[in-house]
Design a protein that fits this description.
The chain has 211 residues and is an alpha/beta fold. The chain contains eight helices and twelve strands. The N and C termini lie close together (12 Å). Bound molecules: iron/sulfur cluster. The site of iron/sulfur cluster (SF4) has 15 residues, from helix 7.
Amino acid sequence: MKRGTLMNQENVEVLLKNLADRNIEGYWFEDFATAKSKIMSMISIKDSVGIGNSITLKNMNLSYELSERGNLVYDKTLANNKEEVRELKRKALLTDWYVTGSNAISMDGHIVNMDHSGNRVAAMLYGPKYVIIVIGINKVIQTLDEAIYRVRNIASPKNAKRAGMNPPCVDLEKCIDCRSPERVCNNLVIIEGQYEKKRMKVFIINEKDGF
Ligand code: SF4
C-alpha cells in the first residue's frame, strides 16, 4: 500500500465536516493498520459481520482476523461454490456490522459505488445495523462527476478483469456503456446521506490501495 499525498489537513477537515453534515461519521487514519485496529475494537466479538468484496479489505486480512477471534463472518469470497456465494450474500444483509470498501468518494461527501449483482450496495443502504466503509486516499475525488467518471472508467474495468469477466472495457481501458453479457455495471449507487445517526462510518486512509 502506497502512502497518499493528496490531502492536506484542511482538506481532511472539509471532507469529515461534509460527511458529518450528511449524518455520516468520518474518520481519518494515517494507515490501514491503524484503521484495522479501530475496526477490531469497534466490533464486539459477539457481533456478526458481513464483508463486501474488496481488494482493500482482502489486503487488511479482516475476515480472517475477525473469524479467528470468534466473530461470525459472512464473506462471499470464502465460499466454495455458487450456492454458498448466494447464501453468504443474503446472510450478510442482516448482520450487526457490514464492512466494505468503496469505489470513490467526492470531497463534498458523496459515496459512489458500482455493483455487479448489487449485494454490496444493498447492505450499505439498509439491513446491517452498522456499516464501515474503508476508503484509500486514491479514491478521494474532487467532485461527484469526477467520482462517477472514475468509477466507470477506472474501477469498473479493473474490477471486471479481476472477476475474470471480459466486457469491452477490459481491453479498451475505458467504459463504452456496453450491453455485454459480461457487463459488471448493473447498479450505480450514490449515497447522499444517512437517516440513522451513527449507522454509517467512513474511514479515510492516508494510503493508496484498491481501485
Ligand atoms: S458498462 Fe460495460 S464497458 Fe462500461 S465499465 Fe461497465 S462493463 Fe465495462
